[in-house]
Amino acid sequence: MNVVRAEAMGMCFGVRDALRLAERVEDPREVTIHGELVHNAEVLTRLAARGFGMAGEADRTDVPASPLVLITAHGVSDRERARLDAAGKQLLDSTCPLVVRAHEAAQKLRREGYFVLVVGRRGHVEVRGIVEDLDPGRFAVVESPGEVTAYPDARLGIVCQTTSPAHLVANVREAVARANPGAEIRFIDTVCLPTKERQRSLERLLGRVDAVVVVGGRNSNNTKELAALCRGRGKPALHVESAADLDPDWCRRFETLGLTAGTSTLDETIEDVYQALLRIAEPAGVAGP
Question: Which pTM value belongs to this model?
Fold first, then answer.
């Protein structure tokens, strides 16, 4: 069994910046992270060990008791910021700049009178932050082309969750145009560059391997999309959070195994998985960078 690594994989600058902000906190006991700082179990375990409080992403209705609240890399709505401000909380903001760009794009479309379509996973924390600032009845979240319908507006604006796969966005855009032939459609591409780079790198890798190990958090959208991309191209994918999740018997079924990772995956986790795969592969050897 040979192991080939994707050219671009793993942690993006937005996640690194969020982790650096958390590292600079002098007294974590004074801080509640408003959700999951990043979607990575190892990172969350380390933050909890340092003493950070953490609100579950589905349980953020209560105002945190701590004086400081850390906004996660996935961001929150302006309405949520105002609620925390009104409660007297000091905000530490680790929102990824590319998530901020997606918020701004949605608001631009709203101000210009468009019915806003957000391509992404319904209920995902990033998507919730975007739509909470949109006007009720003037937006829709679209997870797949099959959900597209004829919308009650002559002007439709489209933005994307930053970790949406490019093929999904293209298919939704085509479906919107077909279902709304008389509408003015404006598209603002808010899929982030690190997501695109990892997806493109995986596309190139798929032609060289028989199957792929994808490393990242179980609830990481971009990691799940990488695994879905593999399966959509007919290549088996094993989604693991760490080397402990590897199935040696599954891995040995394939002559050449690819390796990629989501944007919230620690460098050391990727290396641990890679080294574990080399041990599984012995004595077949290794290929790739």
Answer: 0.87
Amino acid type, 190: T
Which range scores top for mean pLDDT: 62-66, 82-86, 281-285?
A: 82-86
- Which two tokens mark 189? 């591409």
* CATH class in words for 98-187: alpha beta
Give catalytic status of residue 126 as yes or no: yes
270's CB contacts (< 8 A; 6+ apart) are 9, 10, 215, 259, 261
Question: Structure tokens of 9?
Answer: 């994989």
Rounding to the nearest 10 degrees, give the CA dihedral for residues 174, 175, 176, 180: 110
Can you give the residue ranges of every domain in the chain?
2-10+194-281, 13-96, 98-187
Distance from C-alpha of 219 to C-alpha of 205, rounded to nearest angstrom:
24
Residue 286 has pLDDT above 70, yes or no: no
What is the distance between the alpha carbons of residues 165 and 151, in angstroms, rounded to a whole number? 23
Four-way CATH pick for 2-10+194-281: 1.20.5.170, 3.30.450.40, 2.40.40.20, 3.40.1010.20: 3.40.1010.20
The amino acid occupying position 238 is L
Catalytic option among 7, 30, 36, 126: 126
In the sheet with 53-54, reading across from the earlier edge strand, the strands are 53-54, 31-33, 68-71, 90-93
